[in-house]
């Protein structure tokens, strides 16, 4: 049995269904992420776990106990918000001590536990500072220390890094991973940032319109999206829509021939049951595509000719948009690995593109 179980949970606001019959389980010690665009229901689900909101249907079970009748303060969970929610008139130590004092913990134990919590987030030397004297990253660590000091079974984090700049966000992502390993507490993390979710999580639930579209490990979410929404939402992805012309058994799955307007017939791998004549899409990550002035089509590869329509230089890599001769666009991501080189092709250059059959992933419509 999972530590935290969400069983057929639904939440409505008038005619709007924010969370629609969601069921999932979170294991003890797991870094679990709810990922999706604004309005998908991820924060509403987090608020129901915390007890700040109540489901209209279904149940939330922690350690085998239904939390329905437990108010937020009695639930063995704590929440870290994007806004930090620190008391400006209290020192760092005072902020961390606050939940212990509210629980009437002995003063000597409060001092000991606060000191341990601050050391755990590397802020022992800042105990006497006030929030306005701290950086954004330090404030976030104080908020985490305050949440962890009561030793909750689950720590809920609602977009905790969204307000930070990119470099600090990357630094704190590493700190969060190490902190979660050290304390061993289950983290349930909410974010709309796909890169952040892939970097931090043991598993990810991708949400859309109140439902879970896919729940899987990050590598599976990225490499083998189950729906068109997941493929499009997670990172850059070519999506080629077409009609299945043929299906050939291969290993534990099959190879699907798909007729794509503006591109012709391409082949992709699948483990789904697919029938000729059905519709679907091939999801192909740009880094799987190779382009060159001339290419020899290898065995087991798709191939097309066209020209560079535009490109986006991003420092270490460049994203090229190739317009095939039939009109379909193909994105290719190339590393700028040669010394002194900033890009390989200019807009208008004639190129050929190729990718392996098993680089593309077929998604039924």
Characterization of this structure:
The relative contact order is 0.11. The protein has a six-stranded mixed beta sheet with strand order 6-7-8-3-9-10, sandwiched between helices. The protein has a five-stranded antiparallel beta sheet with strand order 13-12-11-14-20. Helix content is 23%, strand content 38%. It has helices spanning 42-50, 92-102, 107-120, 136-148, 166-183, 194-200, 218-223, 228-233; strands spanning 4-13, 16-26, 31-35, 57-62, 65-66, 77-81, 154-158, 186-191, 203-208, 211-216, 238-250, 253-260, 264-270, 279-284, 290-292, 301-313, 317-324, 329-335, 350-356, 361-364. Helix 2 (92-102) crosses helix 3, helix 2 (92-102) runs parallel beside helix 4 (136-148) and helix 3 packs across helix 4 (136-148). The chain is an alpha+beta fold and 365 residues long. The radius of gyration is 25 Å and the shape is elongated. The model has no long low-confidence stretch (mean pLDDT 92). A hairpin with a 3-residue loop joins strand 16 and strand 17. It folds into two domains: 4-231, P-loop containing nucleotide triphosphate hydrolases (Rossmann fold), CATH 3.40.50.300; 236-364, RNA polymerase II/Efflux pump adaptor protein, barrel-sandwich hybrid domain (OB fold (Dihydrolipoamide Acetyltransferase, E2P), Beta Barrel).
């Amino acid at each position: 049995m999972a530590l935290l179980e969400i069983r057929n949970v639904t939440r409505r606001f008038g005619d709007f269904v924010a969370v629609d019959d969601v069921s999932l389980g979170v294991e003890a010690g797991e870094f679990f992420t709810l990922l999706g665009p604004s309005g998908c229901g991820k924060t509403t689900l987090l608020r129901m776990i915390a007890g700040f909101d109540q489901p209209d249907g279904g149940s939330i079970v922690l350690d085998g106990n239904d939390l329905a009748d437990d108010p937020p303060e009695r639930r063995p969970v704590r929440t870290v918000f994007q806004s930090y929610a620190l008391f400006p008139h209290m020192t760092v130590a005072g902020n961390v001590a606050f939940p212990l004092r509210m629980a009437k913990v002995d003063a000597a134990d409060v001092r000991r536990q606060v000191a341990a919590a601050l050391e755990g987030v590397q802020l022992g030397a800042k105990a006497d500072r006030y929030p306005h004297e701290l950086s954004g990253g330090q404030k976030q660590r104080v908020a985490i220390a305050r949440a962890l000091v009561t030793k909750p079974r689950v720590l809920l984090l609602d977009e905790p890094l969204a307000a930070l700049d990119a470099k600090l966000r990357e630094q704190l992502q590493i700190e969060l991973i190490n902190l979660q390993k050290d304390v061993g507490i289950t983290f349930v993390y909410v974010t709309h940032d796909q890169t952040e979710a892939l970097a931090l999580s043991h598993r990810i639930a991708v949400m859309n319109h109140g439902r879970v579209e896919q729940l899987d490990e990050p590598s599976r979410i990225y490499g083998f999206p189950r729906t068109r929404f997941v493929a499009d939402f997670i990172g850059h992805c070519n999506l080629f829509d077409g009609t299945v012309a043929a299906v050939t058994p291969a290993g534990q799955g099959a190879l699907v021939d798909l007729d794509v307007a503006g591109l012709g017939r391409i082949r992709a791998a699948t483990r789904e049951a697919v029938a000729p004549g059905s519709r679907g899409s091939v999801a192909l990550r740009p880094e799987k595509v190779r382009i060159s002035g001339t290419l020899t089509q290898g065995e087991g590869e798709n191939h097309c000719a066209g020209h560079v329509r535009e490109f986006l230089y991003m420092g270490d890599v460049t994203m090229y948009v190739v317009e095939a001769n039939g009109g379909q666009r193909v994105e290719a991501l190339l590393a700028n690995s040669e010394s002194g080189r900033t890009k390989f092709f200019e807009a208008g250059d004639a190129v050929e593109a190729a990718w392996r059959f098993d680089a593309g992933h077929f998604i039924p419509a």
